[in-house]
Amino acid sequence: MSATTRILFVDDEPAYCRIFRTRIGADPQFQIETANSGDEALTRLQTFPADIVFADMNMPLMDGIELLTEIKNRYPQIFVIMLTGDDATSQVVKAMKAGAYDYLLKPMDLEMVKRSIQTILDHKAAVQSGRSERCSQGENFCFENIIGQDRKMFEIYEQINQVAQSMATVLITGESGTGKELIAAAIHAKSPRKNKPFIQINCAALAEGLISSELFGHEKGAFTGAITRKKGFFEQATGGTLFLDEIGDISPTTQVSLLRILELGTFQRVGGSETIKADVRLICATNRDLAAATREKLFREDLYYRLNVVSLQAPPLRDRKSDIPLLANYFLERFSTINSKQIEGISRDAMDLLCAYDWPGNCRELANIIEHAVVFCREKSLTRELLPAQFKTTEPSVVPVNNITTPTLAEAEHALIKKALEASNWNLKMAAEALDIARGTLYSKIEKYHLHKPD
Ligand SMILES: Nc1ncnc2c1ncn2[C@@H]1O[C@H](COP(=O)(O)OP(=O)(O)OP(=O)(O)O)[C@@H](O)[C@H]1O
Ligand SMILES: [Mg+2]
Fold first, then answer.
1. Tens place of pLDDT for every residue, the chain, 455 residues?
2. 223, 271 Cβ separation under 8 angstroms
3. Which part of the chain is the Response regulatory domain (predicted)?
4. How far apart are CA 171 and CA 254, in angstroms?
5. Is residue 307 in contact with ligand 1, taking CB distance under 6 Å?
6. Rg (Cα) of the chain, in Å, rounded?
7. Which atom of ligand 1 is nearest to the CA of 181?
8. Ligand 1 touching residue 148 (CB < 6 A)
9. Does residue 322 have its Cβ closer than 6 Å to ligand 1?
10. CATH code assigned to 409-448
11. In the chain, N or C: fewer CB atoms in 10 Å?
12. Are strands 142-143 and 146-147 parallel, antiparallel or unpaired?
């Protein structure tokens, strides 16, 4: 981050530009440029690498939202703050959805302006502290391998920084593919335990009969097959962090064992009598609604409260659509390198389709789609033809004609899931892999579509 912060102020009213330049520009840490229209602003940005843009919402010709959209497409790293004459909620909501960092009401309160600049600088500093060498992306939007510059993501980065310093148990919730694993890894990496083990366990994959021995270990001869003493995950993670992924999938018996260890802070190996102190920081994640599961008595309420000391919610991608170009380019770079391809970028129409899509599978779905497109790409840029079928539904050719109706998305999904379950003879692991979704997601879809294994 440079010591000088470059700010572009855009307003069709020259008086506002003058006030901003003289009052905010009086502080030597800010370098100010102004523009009286959207067009002029875009021209300025070609030579003036602004960190922050303040843009008036109501301007003739190109209005503030159009300018914001254009800036986010061309320079996703720029923070944009909208200025609005009246508190037109629908406009404000539209601007925030299009990636505005914040909005301020006019007439402009210079103290508020300074405060919003400071918040951005604080956010930038937080991200800066999480820079990772593996991230080649710009400094403003990569925090410990998590990509995102939407305000919701900055809030996540700040929460990670805060909780990393404590020992509190953290529950990360969010839909499938929203980056919960990355968040858990980031909390560990930012914590004082970072040089100790980070042990990650997928609870849904643990065999029911062996779960206690997996978690707590066992003594030699504890049961048939226990030929040596074995340390469990709690012991392996000593001094470090234990990440229990898909915690919503654990059985009632395991819930009791976990509750016990959280209450006592100690455990015993299976077949052992030694009491061992659990020196681990626990992080859990789930894509299920655990609060609802407790109401339905599927998950123990007492355990839920123990796990949910601090909760972090990974936002779905459709709620931070302004991050789509950033993520798409990040995945493009990643998969181009892996596949030794030189692809310079994503065509504008392909990017428009990506931005318009709702991403039920979130970042994982985006990563998969870009990977697929990269593999089949023969040109210098990634074009819309390389996107899969769901992106072609907007084209006239698939609009129902002559009373021939296409299935709805839910019908198609239902049919696909049913087919995958039948093909795998209801082997959930295989079906989830074939569908390229997490097992937890498959469970919830099975519930959603009321699917039942045939007797
Ligand atoms: N913000 C992000 N920046 C970069 N990559 C991301 C981001 N979020 C997710 N990904 C990528 O998307 C994929 C899925 O992420 P992750 O496994 O963390 O999701 P999850 O929330 O744990 O999903 P599930 O509930 O299905 O287990 C990974 O390849 C991850 O690297
Ligand atoms: Mg996961």
1. 447 999 999 999 999 999 999 999 999 999 999 999 999 999 999 999 999 999 999 898 888 999 998 898 788 778 999 998 766 677 788 888 788 888 898 888 889 999 999 988 887 777 666 555 445 545 557 788 899 888 889 889 989 999 999 999 999 999 999 999 999 999 999 999 999 999 999 988 887 777 888 888 999 888 888 888 889 999 999 999 999 999 998 888 888 888 988 888 898 898 888 899 989 999 999 999 999 999 999 999 999 999 999 999 999 999 998 889 889 989 999 999 999 999 988 998 898 889 889 999 999 999 999 999 999 999 899 999 999 988 875 443 333 333 344 556 777 788 888 888 888 888 888 888 888 787 777 887 887 787 888 77
2. yes
3. 6-121
4. 17
5. no
6. 26
7. 18
8. yes
9. no
10. 1.10.10
11. C
12. antiparallel
Tokens 């692991």 sit on residue: 429
Return phi, psi of residue 224, to 5°: -60, 125
Closest CA to 216 of 298, 274, 286: 274
Q: Is 79 helix (H, G, I), strand (E, B) or coil?
A: strand
Tokens 């959207």, residue located: 38
Helices within 145-251 (DSSP H only)? 151-164, 180-190, 211-216, 233-236
- Domain residue ranges in the chain: 5-128, 151-313, 317-398, 409-448
Q: Three-class SS of residue 321?
A: helix
In whole angstroms, give the CA distance from residue 232 to residue 115.
50
Ligand 1 closest atom vs CA 148 = 1
Question: Locate tokens 């802070």: which residue?
Answer: 265
Question: Which atom number of ligand 1 is nearest to the Cα of residue 286?
Answer: 25
CATH number belonging to the domain at 317-398, selected among 3.30.565.10, 1.10.8.60, 1.10.1740.110, 1.10.630.10: 1.10.8.60
**Distance from C-alpha of 35 to C-alpha of 71, rounded to nearest angstrom:** 14
- Choose one of 127, 178, 330 to mutate for the ligand 1 pocket test, by most ligand atoms within 8 angstroms of C-beta: 178
The answer for 144, left when phi > 0, alpha when psi is -120 to 50, beta otherwise, is: left
Q: Give the pair of three-digit tokens for residue 221.
A: 């001869």
Q: What is the CATH number of domain 5-128?
A: 3.40.50.2300
Amino acid making up residue 294: T
The two tokens of residue 249 are 């999938």
Domain 151-313 is found in CATH 3.30.360.10: no
- Written as six digits, the tokens of 40 are 């002029």
